[in-house]
Amino acid sequence: MSLFGNSLRELMDAKDVSGLKLAEDIGITPTSVSRILTGQSRPRQVTFTRILKRLCESKAEEQELIRAYSGLEALPEEAALADARNAEEDEARVKRFLEVKTQSILFKRSVGRELAKAGIEFTADYCKGAISTDFLIETNGKRIALECRFNVQRDLERAVITAKVLREALGCDTVITVTPFDISEGAPEAGDFLMATPSEVIDLLRKDLH
Question: Which fold has domain 107-208?
């Protein structure tokens, strides 16, 4: 049984939900539920979303399943049922993905415009080997990376790890995660993790670079 299968089984037991009932509620076969629980396959994204909605009543429960799910890439995906509900939910999921992708691109472009307007020189989409950052600023012996995150709250843990990797791999003095809104109250307690809005970034850069 996989970590995800164990986590899912524990959650099902806590909610008193059988495999048969879960299959019925989320629109897959009992055989598919069994294969997921025993680590023989991983749920499709649409199935995983239904599992979260059906079983998770708290953020902690949701995050535990998400972490376990992220380790299932090597497993074959469950067989898809060719029904209207699956088709509609798959299309809706793709549309949400494209919407978030568009928002992220537009936000990144807006950050680039603000930097240019402030007269701050930068390299966009800087790459070193397999590592890249949205903006790299090098001046006065300092190296600063900017990572734009339109919806950083979706995965704060990944943003913290990304900042650490960029500091080490690119030799950055500072990595700033740029967000469209001030969400400092929800920021993780990490002394070297810095989040700022575009206007705050400009102020910070002006202080650092002069």
Answer: Restriction Endonuclease (3.40.91)
